[in-house]
Amino acid sequence: MAQIRVLRRMASILTTPLAPEDVLGLINPLSSSRQLRGVVTKVVRETPDSTTIHFRPGRGWNPHAAGQWARVGVEIDGVRHWRSYSLSAAAGHDPAITVTAIGVVSTALARDTKTGDILFLDTPQGDFTLPEHPRPLLMLTAGSGLTPVMSMIRTLVPRRPDADVVLIHSARTPADALFHDELLELADQFPGLTVKHWFTRDSGTDAPARRLDLSDATDLETLCPDWRDRAAYACGPAEFLDAATELWLRDGHDDTHENLTIERFAPALLPGTGGEGGLVTFEKSDKEVEVGGDVSLLDAGEGCGVVMPSGCRMGICRSCLTPLVAGKVRDLRTGEVHGDEGELIQTCVNAAAGPVHLDI
Fold it and tell me: Which stretches make up the FAD-binding FR-type domain (predicted)?
């Protein structure tokens, strides 16, 4: 250990004013003891608005399980922004994210990312993963909700001859459907995969275009008659998932809701939790804004130009924790009003309940 300390001191002298790891970072951008990084190896346009970004992570990355997500950081105009994205690559392969150009950060990633770019990373997380034991599966997805399920399909179907997977995917048109051609090719190649596309605007046929109706079991019975006997995974917009949850609870067998696993891209907010709102003051940034009781503190800060820490933006990763200086906040998921001086507040799922001062 003494020899290692001597070597480190010698390296520091030789690289002053930079730290040794900073010099190493100039040689190998993935080498950093401070921040996990990845280099973009391939960029694939999936649809007019969606792009898959393949990357090779540096040391410290944990291999992902199919269906997990990871926080990804990207610098825009000199400011690092963090967002959470599902990993769409098969487990055991270098990771990839599939990003749809919605919002400033996702649009920058989808439109501007090039091979050789550096992404800032956090390790994979999430329990939206394949069941431990083989069983018939139903994958119910809409829009970009297909991305974690695509990782599952790519992982399971080619490797397990006993796989039995039915995918029902809802998209606006065939051109908007993520991985459309690849899924049809996989279904042709592997008998254990059945793919049913549902198009809400234009199917390219004379069939009427409408939303997949989950208010009762009629559409689901037509697409997958044995849906009650399958372990189901659902991912997509909040209304889609809410309808699926209600259907499983109402029309499935008594215990079928336990066979429905949900992955949400936004927090499940309690209806009517918005209160009076208030004036939010961001003390270090010297900014303030008057907001309603249904506006998260994270959105309030970003709306007035404050650089807010964030990650999943749905109350899971706790990357947005910010000290409360004064005031009370309302949890948008439960309606609970809380707040003590110095308390760390999840700004993505809390709103102002009167005047609020944040230490940022």
Answer: 33-131
**Which CATH number, 2.60.40.10, 2.40.30.10, 3.40.50.1970, 3.40.50.1980, labels domain 14-121?**
2.40.30.10
Classify domain 278-358 at the CATH class level: alpha beta
Between 269 and 177, residue with greater pLDDT: 177
Is the pLDDT score of 24 beyond 50? no
DSSP state of 302: H
**Alpha helix segments (H runs only) across 212-336:** 218-223, 238-251, 297-303
Query: Phi, psi at residue 168, to the nearest 5°?
Result: -115, 115
As a whole number of angstroms, the distance between CA 57 and CA 32 comes to 11
pLDDT of 266 reads 80
Tokens in use for 148? 């974690």
Q: Quote the tokens at residue 215.
A: 């208010």
Q: What angle do CA 105, 108, 113 make, to 5 degrees?
A: 125
> Smallest Cα–Cα separation from 72: which of 30, 23, 36?
36
**Is 131's pLDDT higher than 80?**
yes
Fold for the domain defined by 137-264: Rossmann fold (3.40.50)
The C-alpha angle 75, 79, 85, rounded to 5 degrees, equals: 50
Listed ranges 8-12, 185-189, 258-262, 305-309; the one with the highest mean pLDDT: 185-189
Helix (H) or strand (E) holding 184: helix 180-189
Rounded to two decimals, the pTM is 0.81
Instruction: Take residue 74 and report the two structure tokens written for it.
Output: 């990207």
Q: In this structure, are residues 48 and 92 in contact, taking their beta carbons and an 8 Å threshold?
A: no
Tokens matching residue 4? 């290692």
Block residue for tokens 């997500």: 69
Burial (CB count within 10 angstroms: exposed 0-12, middle 13-18, buried 19+), residue 106:
buried
Structure tokens at 54: 């393949």
* Distance in angstroms (rounded) separating the CA atoms of residues 104 and 106: 6
